[in-house]
Amino acid sequence: MAPVGEAVVLVLVAVLWGSTGPFLRTGAAGLEEVQCQGRLQQLLAEIRFLGLNYKYMVPFLLNQGGSLLFYLTLASADMSLAVPLCNSLALIVTLVTGKILGEDIGGKRVAAGMLLTVLGVMLCVTGS
After folding, report:
1. From CA 17, how far away is CA 47, in angstroms rounded?
2. Could you say which residues form the signal peptide (predicted)?
């Protein structure tokens, strides 16, 4: 795959990973209320709750699709660039998606810390 194509796929992976996290948290709401006797019955009840909940399953499947794309892209991409690029972009997308959904993202300190982390990763990537 051409380097530009790899970059496009890696950005898509970051968007899939970053945007689905807040939706997974929203979709899993109510899981704490599932109560059953015994560990196995509790596990099965929680799996059934999540598996039958489209608000959880749609983002989960999109997230796993991103993982599959990432795995396939790693066959030709430079891993030392792919991993930090995807993680940094996914972090930004998660922040933006969470903010849009009204999540408490921790204020300006968290946003500044995330920005500094992304800048640090970018410095490392461009330096290699």
Report:
1. 21
2. 1-18
